[in-house]
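Fig. S4 source data, part A: sequence.
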Amino acid sequence: MADQTNEQRAVFNQTRRSFLSLGVTTADTPLARLVGLLGKRKLRTDEGLWVVPSHGIHTVGMLVPLDVIYLDERQRVIHLIEHLGPFRVGPVRLDCASVLELPVRTIYASQTQLHDDLLICSYAEIEHCWRTLQTL
């Protein structure tokens, strides 16, 4: 789960066996959630934000569109938004525990769909997680 270190994390779709990102930053404090990705003019392919906790997000003040993935407490995909433009408000989902904000086309490229199981882990945990996945 999220921690206060602000270290980057990898996001892996266990269902589709594809990486969504290798550079997601955790926003798990009120200030980090407030600032989010404000001021970013462009997101790199492996960049993103994991907003924890969250029931939804907005892009008011944002300069770039986003792909948005809503997750339940088990990191299962419960809602997807491809290409949420700047100055928009995403739906509020009370069953949502966290939200991933990723570059546009991430959902398409990773083939992520509703009910997929995601794994979000720190770089230090990647090797262990990958070995675990290899045995499945």
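Fig. S4 source data, part B ends here. Helices lie at 30-35, 106-110, 123-134.
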